[in-house]
Amino acid sequence: MNNNSAFETNLDQNQANYTALSPLTYLERAATVYPSRVATVHGEIRRTWKEVYQRCCRLASALQKLGVKKGEAVSIMAPNLPEHFEAHFGVPMCGAVLNSINTRLDSAAVAFILKHAESKVLIVDREFSAVVKAALTMLESPPYVVDIDDPYYTEGELIGATQYEALLDSGDADFVWPRVKDEWNAITLNYTSGTTGDPKGVVYHHRGAYLNAVSNAISWGMQQHPVYLWTLPMFHCNGWCFPWTIAAMAGVSVSLRHVRADHIFNLIKSEKVGYFCGAPIVLNMLNSADDALKAGIEHPVKVMTAGAAPPAAVIAGMEKLGFSVTHVYGLTETYGPSVVCVWHEEWDDKTLEEKARLKARQGVRAPMLDGLMVADPVTLQPVPQDGKTMGEIFMQGNLVMKGYLKNPETTAKAFDGGWFHSGDLAVWHADGYIEIKDRSKDIIISGGENISSIEVEDVLYSHPMIQEAAVVAKSDEKWGETPCAFVALKDCDKEVTAEEIIKFCREHMAHFKAPRHVVFGPLPKTSTGKIQKFLLREQANATESE
Amino acid sequence: MNNNSAFETNLDQNQANYTALSPLTYLERAATVYPSRVATVHGEIRRTWKEVYQRCCRLASALQKLGVKKGEAVSIMAPNLPEHFEAHFGVPMCGAVLNSINTRLDSAAVAFILKHAESKVLIVDREFSAVVKAALTMLESPPYVVDIDDPYYTEGELIGATQYEALLDSGDADFVWPRVKDEWNAITLNYTSGTTGDPKGVVYHHRGAYLNAVSNAISWGMQQHPVYLWTLPMFHCNGWCFPWTIAAMAGVSVSLRHVRADHIFNLIKSEKVGYFCGAPIVLNMLNSADDALKAGIEHPVKVMTAGAAPPAAVIAGMEKLGFSVTHVYGLTETYGPSVVCVWHEEWDDKTLEEKARLKARQGVRAPMLDGLMVADPVTLQPVPQDGKTMGEIFMQGNLVMKGYLKNPETTAKAFDGGWFHSGDLAVWHADGYIEIKDRSKDIIISGGENISSIEVEDVLYSHPMIQEAAVVAKSDEKWGETPCAFVALKDCDKEVTAEEIIKFCREHMAHFKAPRHVVFGPLPKTSTGKIQKFLLREQANATESE
Hints:
The structure is a homodimer of 546-residue chains.
Chain A: H1 24-33, E1 38-42, E2 45-48, H2 49-65, E3 73-77, H3 82-93, E4 97-100, H4 107-117, E5 121-125, H5 129-137, E6 144-148, E7 162-163, H6 164-169, E8 186-191, E9 201-205, H7 206-219, E10 227-229, H8 237-240, H9 242-248, E11 252-254, H10 261-270, E12 275-278, H11 280-287, H12 291-294, E13 301-305, H13 312-320, E14 323-331, E15 336-340, H14 352-359, E16 364-365, E17 371-375, E18 391-396, E19 403-404, H15 408-414, E20 420-428, E21 434-439, E22 443-446, E23 449-452, H16 453-461, E24 466-476, E25 480-489, H17 498-508, E26 517-520, H18 533-542
Parallel strand pairs in A: 1-11, 3-4, 3-5, 4-8, 5-6, 6-7, 10-11, 10-12, 12-13, 13-14, 25-26
Antiparallel strand pairs in A: 1-2, 8-9, 9-19, 14-15, 15-16, 17-18, 18-20, 20-21, 22-23, 24-25
Helix pairs in contact in A: 1-2, 1-9, 2-3, 4-5, 7-9, 11-13, 13-14
């Protein structure tokens, strides 16, 4: 820039014309503009935006009184309850950083996180108090523990020094929370559930949270006052930033402790839920529910799904219910979904199979992601948009994390060359859509040929009796690796053998890509519904060769 | 912030995780994600987002070849044509600052602006070439002039060194435009049509333009692909930032040279226009149109109005047409509308009069305005929210301008105390809505009592025969000032006298507030449809006292 330009002289930032971007302003505005609109629902408990705001002020004030300082972590391990929603605001309102812990972790992993984050306070729900109790014994300086005593859940122990409601009572509803001065300051900390090594602490900042909240709303074409159901865990990329989206749109946050079809359908009907997110596995569960549960939904429902490409049958089932499915993609490092499979009207007339094929692609950059490419992992040269050449997915811009906590080497590596390295392998289609072919580690190299486990899985999913499938590499003396399939069958009377499934695969793809082994049984999954391939890999290689 | 916090250490901004906010990224994304969707419509001319993007690249490249440097101004004086839309992207894409000139200005005012902005290039439409030609003779270093040769307009002279299409041809469609590095850099320059003194040049930056574009979309609950009709001039706060909103939402920009009811209704029907903006006077014109024109609109249409509170009759007429009206408020200094009269569902059941009264209020802060208050102009102490105490409206945050060009004193004054001083007087209601009572200079002080000219006008508008009304102060020996009304009557056979109108006013308000004088005839208006009260004030005081 021409620094002598009159347009850059005597026109500096000041208090009147510059405010740090922060999603906390969404809550403040919702409370001011819509004080008496319902903000959170949990069973019979309903609170307005003004009430939620005051509770968040109390929480911030109480944490400050407890001695929590700016730039310190406050952890929470809880289901998708109002308290968890409030923590997304109240914790950063005192300058602290919210660390929402994956509720499926064991004590050792929880202890690792609490120690690494140096959490000063831990808010915990009864359902996870046993795990937390054990974790605390492993720490030299355990955090101050606050119990959530959910009236709808009586199991589990209360283990804290105080209870959440008592903590709020100790805070000041008129607390003047310190405004965010620097939008680059940390707002949350999310640990990736890495399959190797220690989990990494992904740090988000106020600016990114503010922008992704709006990017979500635009992606979905959200109207004001969306009713959002919490099927997606809040510990997962801060619920893909939806607590902040809901505040920005003055919507309704509908709590959900357990992802069960009956709860979900009942809440969709009783609360007129218009939006929810979940892995394809959740959609699958809803599709398989009783017709009686499904009946009676007369309003439009939009679903965002990620974690795996939604199979055609899942999309068809959802559409039959009148639910419209948007496929998105992202990583913890990109605030959740930063890539969206934008739908084009002209695709509406295609066959279900064609639609599923188009929708299975991860897509294009979300409204506020600045850069997306598939490129050579070493040279960072973009691959041709030919739908064939494989490369790594790279992202750039405001929806990329601040970095990994206390891990400058890994941070630098992740940002090497000025792009975020996703570690996911994909092709780039002529229309600009990216399609994941595999995680680097999920590629099966058999006789020197690359086999995409996703491609084999797609064929398996097209088998009429297969409910779920995952394919991993199994060591093989002759071929190096061969594909090994794990399948869960649909609940029906018929039977199918491993040989029949292998034959089916050979009929639908190159022979060398067909699995050599088929293992039947339920598939192990992460808390977010992702199939845990590393476990299957272990199992495949422990299995005696045929 | 605790600077030793691990959350602020080794987690700096870099190319991978930080991009300057700029609305230019909206255009780039629309061209990438929706290359073949229609972006601009002008008569039979339709261009896709890819085509528009390439034309903007050519424009930026051509301007650079002409020698335009970063931080220099490029002016345009044109109706709401595709070229004007393109200039909102192509000009800043070469690092220059777009200055869109009010098309109602005379040669002297245009010359003042071109000189003050030091414009290097001026793009001009045939309709305004005569005014520009005269303005150029007043300049020592006139800009390089480019003609727009609109195929649908053959009047007026071509006066430039080249034509717009030839200029584009000289540019490179593959031009790699320099990315915006600093979101605080200027993007546009808009001169206020001040009624006293020289016009002030309001500078916008990329960050504010980016944010207000999205704020607009959220305010209106816009879905993807809005079809937007250009009834609001683009020279007015950059069309309230809607060129950038349309790009962000991958919508359609429908051109309009003249604001005429037949053109508007025909385009609403033929292009399925869903959104447009305009002063109440424009809505009034549409209400008064022939029923034949109005018939046949079967899709929802949303209208944003500002500049004056929409009278009940105007709202009722619009609603009868099925148009939903949102009242917004702002100034050139706040990127156009930064305050919005947010509607609450529970108001739907009120009477038309009550609805009009609620909707006449300016409202609450727009989604991305950070601060709004009514306060004492000197102490900046907020007034009580009692709907009675008058104060000045103040704004704060990212939707407030960068400042006035080459005018540090006025800039400092406007931002005194860390808030932008709007100069508008208002009350603050208990529900947080602000309601303008007057511009400081529009208050009439009669016998020591303040009379709000707006209050008197509201009564006049409720008279069945009055089409338009404006009230100003007239000097009076006894009272200091008295209200003088200027009214334009509806087109009907009946007649009404000044005495009858005064009597009507006295029946509906305190006697001392009723006008002492009534003048009949059409009201002088600015290019944006605002009644020019300073002219009426001169006329009122030139009129012989009765």
